[in-house]
Amino acid sequence: MNWNSPAEFFAMGGYGLYVWGSFGICALAFVAEPFLIGRRHKEIVRTLRRQVVAEKLEMENT
Amino acid sequence: MNALLAVMRRDLLMVMRRKSEVLTALFFFVIVSSLFPLGIGPEPVLLRKIAPGVLWVGALLATMLGLQRMFAADHADGTLEQMAISPTPLVVLVLGKVLAHWLVSGLPLVLIAPVLGLQFDLDTEALGVLMLALLLGTPLLSLIGAIGAALTLGVRGGGVLLSLLVLPLYVPALIFGAGAVESHISGLGAGGHLSLLAALLTLAAFFAPWAATAALRIALE
Amino acid sequence: MSNRLINWFKFASPATFYPLAGKMIPLFWTLAAAFGAVGLWLSFFVAPTDATQGEGYRIIFIHVPTSWMSMFIYMVMAGWAAMGLSLNARLSSMMAQALAPTGALMAFLSLWTGAFWGKPMWGTWWVWDARLTSELILFFLYLGFMALQASIDDPRRADKAGAIVALVGVVNVPIIYFSVKWWNTLHQGASVSINKSPAMVTTMLWGMLLMALCLWMYSIAMALTRVRAIILERESHTDWVKQLNEVKA
Q: What is the extent of the structural domain holding B38?
């Protein structure tokens, strides 16, 4: 173990801004990316569902 | 060989009919290069330092202005399709077009660069290195640019997209081209940079026509 | 005996690959989490303080993996694109399309974390040395690939044109990799190589490797998730898509 206290851990020997600035942006990216892909997936599924329903209605009406 | 010369002659003839396009790019080069001393200040030491870079960036941008011209007109009126199905290999015809583009866009830059270099207080030897570097570099720009022009044929937002595609690939030419002049000025000799530039040119001369031809076929499907 | 061998080519069709990818994604997330947990623990709690750089050097544990991934993903993407171009295989091109945004993200993170490391250590956020410049070019190549594909309406033409861009840009990756050897500028030289023992403490090395594995598993999970969305978008007219449970319900 390297750290004597949580405060020391966050300070990173004075380099806190840089270390957490780096790991932080990566953490943000690795949360944002799956979220955005998930949203893209939901959107296309929504569009496809509407398409399927529309086609079914068209079949019933003809 | 005949086909190559024929294509070159045809492209040159078409350009001569509409000289304004070519002259515009040339004037662009002149004006942009003149903007920097005006904007940054006339101090000779500073100008001599930035001269290689500024002139090279100007050359890059001026070349890019003329890239779309390479295939767009022929694509629009169907000539390109005829070229694709002709018995002559398309690669040869593409090479001819690239050479014509260089003669019209690149060579004038090489010739006018010394004049602009004087604006930046470069000495005669440095101007010589600059000309040689541009002589090696501008064909490289035309070759790589042909790939970009073929890929973006008929695509929405073509001009800007072409720049985005082609400029990252231009960076090595810029680095070695400007670097050659800089290293000459600082006394280290331009040999290394010029050799690398020549190597890039040889590589591009072999591979770029093929890549551009493949891209053209994709665009024509 | 032949019915015991898997016919891998069966999965070259979007219809069969879609459910397979769906099953593989949780596996890769689990692997990513596992590697990441151990890697981060090594990075922060086991690896000792550096003599010259203090605690700031710990950025290496995320900077180097993102850099490695940015180059690796580009090669894989170019490979899939080449397959899609030469074999005329739709799914291969879709895979290349799926990899690009993740690769671009890795390149961006490499540049960002590099800048945050450079500022305290070298005193500057950015410098135009060979490795940084070629990594920046790699980032632009990713963007160019994505922009070109986005602006071509016909998907097959977009696939093939993108493949050419990707392949032309492949030459940049060895340049990044070897740039620190060819040009002695600012970025530090290679500490890890294939045929020499590494010039760093073992725990640091393991921390880096495990984080790299973590990002690799993450990238695969992301690419598979994204390719599923791309498959749905591009195959929306097919029967099998319309028969999917998530669409029919």
A: 2-220
